[in-house]
Specification:
By secondary structure, this protein is α+β, with helices and mostly antiparallel strands. Helices cover 18% and strands 32% of the residues. The protein has 14 helices and 30 strands. The strands form six sheets. The chain has a 15-stranded antiparallel beta sheet that branches. It has a five-stranded mixed beta sheet with strand order 1-8-9-6-7, covered by helices on one side. The chain starts with 21 loop residues before the first helix and ends in an 8-residue tail after the last strand.
């Protein structure tokens, strides 16, 4: 029907209001687009609760699931073609926020497909449409006194059968994406097709209609009424009503996060399209808009419909997947819902801002949230499942499924030492067993507080000789769990440790000297303030009693060495600052840590920086006053790009390491900085190169993953150098000179390591 100049419908779309069916477009291939325009935006189906995608690490049972139900079939950035053909394709991997993406990268997600071209109807097709339009008017003619039209329509149907009129045209197979008049229902093949008219649009706008602003449901009197069964006035009335509803939605809509560069590109396509706002063009635009959202990690965004383009502006209505609620479900080992011990504010503190209600759901933020929750150490597994909100259409409910660890634990580990005897035969060093007794109580009161302890001895039957213990109490959220402006943790520990002293070690050219052990009994209390997930600052006092002992547990005041005559000389450097073999000291300790490392398939990537200071207070034996400081910097450089995932090989890594340590003031020999050992110039024994008041070391290591006999392995090569900068004479008694050590040294090596790549560093 042509629009007369005075026809009130002349400024409106003469067919059904342009809308977009997200479900049909989702289930159809996109190259070229096949689905027809739906009658209205479909309601969101109730999805199953089974997760459909695992984007986490299988090793630690951490998963970030894709979106079930109507969220399936999204475009994957790295495999677009495969995703377009599969309606159950996984959600795209997490990527950066769109604000940080460069324009040319934004446009890369909007690859152009052949844009649907308009096609003029053949005379036979137009004639068939006219015949069907006249024939279908019989059911409506009586409503308006139009019996002559019904008779005339029947006469035309008798003279010109519609099937014959279409026979010639049916020989040509229409191109589905170029047919601007095709509808998804077979009943629209006649009159409705004739009434469709493509309206030219020269502007494009994308609006976020938010939550609950979907297309209105049909009125009761129109629920079962097809368009071809309506009169012109009924169609006009419905169209005007839907136009008003569209204006109300747009008026209250918020700006889309779609970048301006992408909007301008789509506007250019709409403007240059000669066939107007055809259904094929709408499908193409909807596909391109959704693709950009999914490429950027906004997996729940979808185009719900298009506004009327009669004003010259094509308005694309998008529900971006706004988070309406965050819910938590605690599960037991069998998957049953139980009451959790952990308080919800403890978990909510770990959520990034982008995963809170009012923000748009993003896969990258979801993955980050799961990692932060796992870092609490309270859960054996953590899963995140986004679900459509049944209360507010278009909203997303973020649901966490958590399995808590047992809060209490206890254990006993025993061992016997084996030493070689005559002719190298292995024999038990002692029939008395050694071992460790440990216990722990975690997540006290559901606030992540913990009390742990351990007691160890080489003789569990009589542990008084070499008993060592460590008891720790940790109290996070010192400023309150609800206060998120600061994140401070209080920790206190009571300890008794025994370690071998690397300062009193002879050069390999000398006779071995009896080992010296340093016992430390003390109390430590500190506060750790976490600035970000990667940086923290720790500070607090330390009180210690240090005792130097020999292998028979006797107190030693001086070091010893073997004379050429074979006698043992006890005229070595003093073992303690007081000279009595026992020191008591109090000092303040602080360290600043910045750790930006991550693990890519088991390999460490990133950089780590640690700065530590110990400041003596002049309290203790002979009132020691000193300042010890240390700076350590390590950088792990990825040499090749490697995709993350279970079973994927790790990348090759180049590790660079540097460390400087120094001391001024009163420095006891047991705190002198030792050079040599597994963490300082590898290839030498601990302290073999010397000890001093200063130290400088540099190292580099190349790590290359290989596969040997179907087993994962790593080839590595390293080179290291360390020196005490000639500062050994500053240590009382100069143990480096006394034991004839060099004071500096270098090492290099090549090796291979089998098994899982660990978290080692230079």
């Amino acid at each position: 029907m042509a629009d007369a100049p005075n026809d009130p419908t002349a400024n409106y779309y003469s067919g059904r209001p342009l809308s977009y069916d997200a479900q049909q477009a989702q289930a159809a291939p996109q190259a070229p687009p096949q689905p027809a325009v739906s009658e209205q935006a479909s309601a969101l189906p109730a999805p199953a609760r089974q997760p459909v995608q695992d984007a986490g690490e299988k090793a630690n049972h951490t998963r970030v699931h894709g979106v079930p139900g109507y969220y399936n079939g999204r475009v994957n950035k790295t495999n677009t073609a495969a995703s377009d053909q599969s309606p159950a394709a996984a959600a795209p991997p997490p990527v950066a926020a769109p604000a940080a993406v460069e324009p040319e990268k934004e446009l890369s997600c909007i690859d152009k497909l052949p844009i649907p071209e308009p096609r003029a109807s053949s005379p036979n097709r137009s004639l068939a449409s006219s015949i069907n339009a006249a024939a279908s008017g019989r059911s409506r003619s009586s409503d308006h006194g139009g019996w002559p039209g019904a008779v005339f329509g029947g006469f035309l149907s008798w003279i010109f059968p519609a099937g014959a009129a279409r026979a010639d045209d049916g020989k040509k197979k229409p191109e589905s994406d170029q047919d601007a008049h095709r509808l998804h229902a077979a009943g629209h093949d006649g009159a409705a097709r004739h009434r469709h008219k493509a309206i030219h649009a020269d502007r494009f706008r994308c609006v976020n209609v938010g939550v609950g602003r979907t297309a209105a449901q049909p009125h009761d009197d129109e629920a079962d009424l097809r368009e071809e069964d309506m009169s012109e006035w009924e169609r006009l009335e419905r169209h005007l009503r839907e136009e008003r509803e569209h204006q109300q939605r747009v008026r209250g809509a918020r700006p889309c996060i779609l970048p301006e560069a992408v909007r301008e590109q789509l506007e250019g396509v709409v403007r240059d399209h000669g066939g107007g706002a055809s259904p094929g063009l709408l499908r193409w635009v909807a596909h391109r808009v959704e693709r950009w959202y999914h490429c950027e990690g906004f997996a729940c965004a979808r185009v719900v419909r298009f506004g009327n383009p009669s004003s010259g502006q094509l308005a694309c209505e998008v529900q971006e997947g706004e988070i309406t609620r965050v819910e938590y479900r605690f599960l037991d080992e069998l998957g049953n819902v139980v009451d959790g011990n952990t308080r919800i504010p403890v978990i909510e503190r770990e959520l990034p801002q982008q995963l809170r209600p009012g923000h748009i759901y993003n896969i990258g933020a979801a993955d980050q949230a799961v990692k932060h929750i796992k870092s609490l150490g309270l859960f054996s597994s953590a899963e995140l499942i986004p679900l459509p909100d049944e209360m507010e259409k278009g909203g997303v409910v973020v649901e966490f499924q958590l399995r808590e660890l047992e809060p209490r634990s206890a254990g006993v580990n025993t061992h016997w030492s084996i030493v070689p005897r005559d002719q190298g035969r292995p024999t038990l060093a002692s029939i008395k067993p050694g071992g460790t007794v440990s216990f722990g109580h975690h997540n006290i009161s559901g606030l992540n507080r913990s009390l742990v302890g351990s007691v160890a001895s080489r003789n569990l039957l009589n542990p008084k000789d070499d008993l060592s213990f460590n008891f720790e109490y940790e109290h996070p959220y010192l400023d309150g769990v609800e206060n998120r402006s600061r994140n401070r943790t209080f920790k206190t520990s009571f300890f008794n440790t025994r370690k071998f002293s690397p300062v009193f070690v002879a050069d390999p050219s000398m006779e071995p000297v009896p080992p010296l052990w340093i016992d430390r009994v003390g109390f430590k209390a500190n506060i750790t303030e976490k600035f970000t997930q990667q940086s923290n600052f720790t500070y607090g006092p330390v009180l210690e009693e240090i005792t130097a002992r020999d292998e028979n547990n006797n107190t030693r005041t001086h070091g010893s060495r073997v004379l050429p005559s074979g006698r043992l000389s006890m005229d070595g450097p003093p073992t303690t600052f007081s000279g009595t073999g026992v020191d008591r000291v109090a000092f303040l300790q602080a360290n600043l840590t910045r750790d930006n490392t991550e693990f890519v398939n088991g390999a460490t990537i990133g950089d780590r920086c640690i700065f530590q200071v110990d400041q003596g207070l002049g309290i203790g034996s002979k009132n020691p006053f000193f300042n010890r400081h240390q700076l350590s910097v390590t950088k792990f450089i990825k040499l090749n790009n490697q995709e993350k995932g279970a079973g994927k090989p790790p990348p090759a890594v180049l590790a660079l390491h540097g460390r400087y340590a120094g001391c001024v003031g009163d420095l006891p020999s047991y705190d002198a900085i030792a050079l040599g050992g597994p963490y300082s110039v590898r290839g030498y024994e601990m302290g073999e190169l010397g000890a001093g008041m200063n130290l400088l070391e540099v190292a580099t290591e190349l790590r290359i993953p290989v596969t040997v006999m179907d087993k994962q392995a790593q080839i590595y090569a390293f080179a290291e150098h360390g020196t005490n900068l000639g500062s050994s004479k500053g240590v009382e008694g100069n143990p480096t000179e006394f034991f004839q050590r060099a004071g500096r040294g270098s090492s290099y090596g090549l090796g291979i390591k089998f098994g899982m790549i660990g978290r080692s560093s230079s």
